[in-house]
Design a protein that fits this description.
Helices cover 79% and strands 4% of the residues. It is mostly helical.
Length: 149
């Protein structure tokens, strides 16, 4: 039962769960009574048929090489596939990404001088260029911008 506050929610589901539990429990008890207590003749015949099939166990020895071959094809070989995929695809790809990041970091490291004044000068120059470009575009002096006015 699902509760939200003081009242249960979804009562029909709770009733159906109770009925399903009762049905399965009663059905299991009935099946147990039929199998062990009543000894249905069909169950006795089934036991006799299973006992008659025991000599077929010798045939399973003849199927052992086929079973081993099937296990090799369906279990042993596919198990090595993830390792092969990792070795041939994933490892070279991650190595290439790592090398690319290392080259990019080396280039970015050259730009880092550690001088605050050079960083400030770069920021002011970039802002001035951006303001100049916006001003030229707004007044129609930037080539290719504002020709349709």
């Amino acid at each position: 039962v699902i509760f939200a506050g003081a009242t249960p929610q979804h009562e029909p589901f709770s009733v159906m769960a109770l009925l399903l539990t009762a049905l399965l429990g009663t059905g299991g008890a009935a099946a147990g009574w039929l199998i062990w207590a009543r000894r249905d003749p069909a169950a006795a015949r089934l036991a006799a048929r299973v006992a008659a099939a025991v000599p077929l166990g010798a045939a399973t020895a003849a199927l052992q090489p086929l079973r081993a071959r099937a296990a090799e094809l369906l279990i042993t070989r596919p198990v090595t596939l993830p390792t092969l995929l990792e070795r041939r695809v994933v490892d070279p790809l991650t190595d290439a990404v790592a090398d690319g990041l290392e080259v990019a970091a080396t280039g970015a490291r050259r730009l880092q001088t550690g001088r605050l004044s050079s960083y400030l000068l770069t920021a002011v120059a970039a802002t001035a260029l951006l303001a100049l470009g916006v001003t030229l575009a707004a007044t129609g002096h930037l080539p290719g911008v504002g020709l349709s006015r």
